[in-house]
């Protein structure tokens, strides 16, 4: 029944490694997002996809590459991990309609780079 | 992108109403005002949103000033489970949420 799910919930890895975070939504939404919450708890948009097409790509290093195999999935691949990548990453999907405009967030993936 | 200003923190007693203020003086005419909250160790969750008129739902009420430069989120009876960071948000041009620092609400029993 989970609306937006992310795996893994925790990810601990060494500097220089490559890792992926997966996100899936079963809400039928067309738009999905990745947000990053740093150690100061500040949440910032990273990417947005609409129906598998990239529509937002904020100033994020090229080491971060989102992939959307279908509109229910938006994965995040990170190459050559750095200490500063340690953060909580949230996936979200958005529903829009005549009277709704709501984003549903996943539980987050806490990434720790050692 | 328009920005919002909120107090860093507020305290409330359980069972009492809470009024969380937000200033958004640069809001444009078509910007909706959104409120989300983030409970400890969880992702943000939607609370309420509105354009001009006051709005009510099962979670809260949203009072919007006539000039739309400020709004107030009202929790009618705070519970311990309402302790969270509350974000007043204006969306970006592509629908993304632009988060500020939010207001950390503490609820005392």
Largest interface: A-B, 24 and 21 residues
- Mean pLDDT rating of chain A: 91
Compute the gyration radius of chain A: what is it? Answer: 14 Å
Order of helices and strands of chain B: EEEEEEEEEE
Protein structure class of chain A: mainly beta
The CA-CA distance between the termini of chain B, in Å, is 39 Å
Structural overview:
Chain A is mostly beta strands. Helices cover 0% and strands 60% of the residues of chain A. In chain A, the strands form two sheets. In chain A, strands 2, 4, 5, 6, 9, 10 and 11 form a seven-stranded mixed sheet that branches. Chain A is globular. Chain B has 109 residues and is mostly beta strands. Chain B has no helices and ten strands. In chain B, the strands form two sheets. In chain B, strands 1, 3, 4, 8, 9 and 10 form a six-stranded mixed sheet that branches. A four-stranded antiparallel sheet of chain B has the order 2-7-6-5, with no helix packed on it. The radius of gyration of chain B is 13 Å and the shape is globular. Chain B starts with 8 loop residues before the first strand and ends with a strand. The interface between A and B is medium-sized, with 24 and 21 residues.
């Amino acid at each position: 029944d989970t609306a937006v799910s992310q795996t893994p919930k925790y990810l601990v890895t060494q500097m220089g490694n490559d890792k992926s975070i997966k996100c899936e939504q079963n809400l039928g939404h067309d738009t999905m997002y990745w947000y990053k919450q740093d150690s100061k708890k500040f949440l910032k948009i990273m990417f947005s996809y609409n129906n598998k097409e990239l529509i937002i790509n904020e100033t994020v290093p090229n080491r971060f590459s989102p992939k959307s195999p279908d509109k229910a999935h938006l994965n995040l691949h990170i190459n050559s991990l750095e200490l500063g990548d340690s953060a909580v990453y949230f996936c979200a999907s958005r529903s829009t309609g005549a009277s709704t405009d709501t984003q549903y967030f996943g539980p987050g993936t806490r990434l720790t780079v050692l | 992108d328009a920005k919002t200003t909120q107090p860093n923190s507020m305290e409330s007693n359980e069972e009492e109403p809470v009024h969380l203020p937000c200033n958004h003086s640069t809001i444009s005419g078509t910007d909706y005002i959104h409120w989300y909250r983030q409970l400890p160790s969880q992702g943000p969750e939607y609370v309420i949103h509105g354009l001009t008129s006051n709005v009510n739902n099962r979670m809260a009420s949203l009072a919007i000033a006539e000039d739309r430069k400020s709004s107030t989120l009202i929790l009618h009876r705070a519970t311990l489970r309402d302790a969270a960071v509350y974000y007043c948000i204006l969306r970006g041009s592509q629908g993304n949420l632009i988060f500020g620092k939010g207001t950390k609400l503490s609820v005392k029993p």
